[in-house]
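Researcher: Dear colleague, please comment on this protein.
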Amino acid sequence: MIKMIILIILGFVFLIKGADFLVNGASGIARKFGIPEMIVGLTIVSIGTSMPELFVSVTSSLKGFSDVSIGNVIGSNLCNLLLILGITTCIRSIKFQKNTKFIDIPFLIVITFLFFILAQDGKISTVDAIILIVLFIIFILYTIISAKKQKENDDEYTLEMILKDKSISIIKCLFQIVIGIVALKFGGDFVVENSTKIAKIIGISDKLISVTIIAIGTSLPELVTSVFAAIKGNTDMAIGNIIGSNIFNLLLIIGVSATINEITFNLSYNLDLIILFFSTVILFIIPYMGKKEYMTKWGGLTYLCMYTAYMVHLVV
């Protein structure tokens, strides 16, 4: 038990330092090439911080543990949205960019609903997996094209900024990103594996483990990365990381896992999916509730209360 606790603490250290490296490296690349931080958050950072979910879900699929694959993704998405975004917003208010309001969040709502429909036959088949993967490819292509257009139209990206950005080392930034992702991966593994072992010793059920301990554990990189980004004022990267991770989880992680081995969907997860869907819809409504289109600490506190109620429901 003591060894497990030590490994959990070591995992947290890896997660914190890994997140710091990842944010610094990704921000450096964004400044070097004039890439908007939102795009970096939706792609490089979100994929990097979703490595623990990918690892856990693919491994579970290979071993035939469908409940863990599904519970990990649904639980992680709820954790990302309600807990992580809630905490991040309490640290610093987040302003929603135009693409976030009209493209990214609506896309997340659509694929959450689509996933719910696909799962109602009690499985995620190979055909379903291909649909999800194709949608992910479309999203990535759209993001890349959007980044190019935004860079071309960005009047603020002046010659002075370009000359200044030449001082940034690409090799150093890439090294930071790689080290950050590796540290996040091992940190997530240490925390999840040992927390699960302790939970089983205590006698917690498999479903509760998958949507709570494993889901929260694999979402720790998103939590630490988004909090660090918010503290450093990179709020676009913080919201981009959360939305991007949720899209990545639903489309690519489930898609890859179901391609390896057809996933059985337990219909008892329907309630969790419904909560996830309406939580995402609320995120879409929030920008229109205030004149400045910000999500303030009150919105963050609302999300934290919703997550607390969800956790209480699971335990009870």
